[in-house]
Specification:
Length: about 80
């Protein structure tokens, strides 16, 4: 039987969940860029809060619109 994911995640769990290096997870947490709190010396994260943070962060990112290709004439290519 599979164990359901726990509601509370460690920094290692968050790094694995986000597929980022552990050092990046620590940096994001220390800078307050990812929602979490320290319990003593240890970081803890609520899974639902992290999931909401991901959704909100993704919604804030504007897609990059590339300019239309410039059509070159046959003369310009020769």
């Amino acid at each position: 039987m599979d164990n359901p994911p726990t509601e509370i995640m460690t920094i290692e769990d968050v790094a694995a969940y986000l597929r980022i290096p552990l050092s990046s997870a620590y940096k994001l947490a220390q800078e307050g860029k990812i929602p979490g709190q320290k319990v003593g010396r240890h970081w803890r994260f609520h899974r639902r809060v992290v999931e909401t943070w991901i959704m909100r962060t993704a919604a804030d990112i504007q897609p990059q619109v590339l300019p239309p290709e410039t059509v070159r004439s046959g003369a310009a290519l020769s």
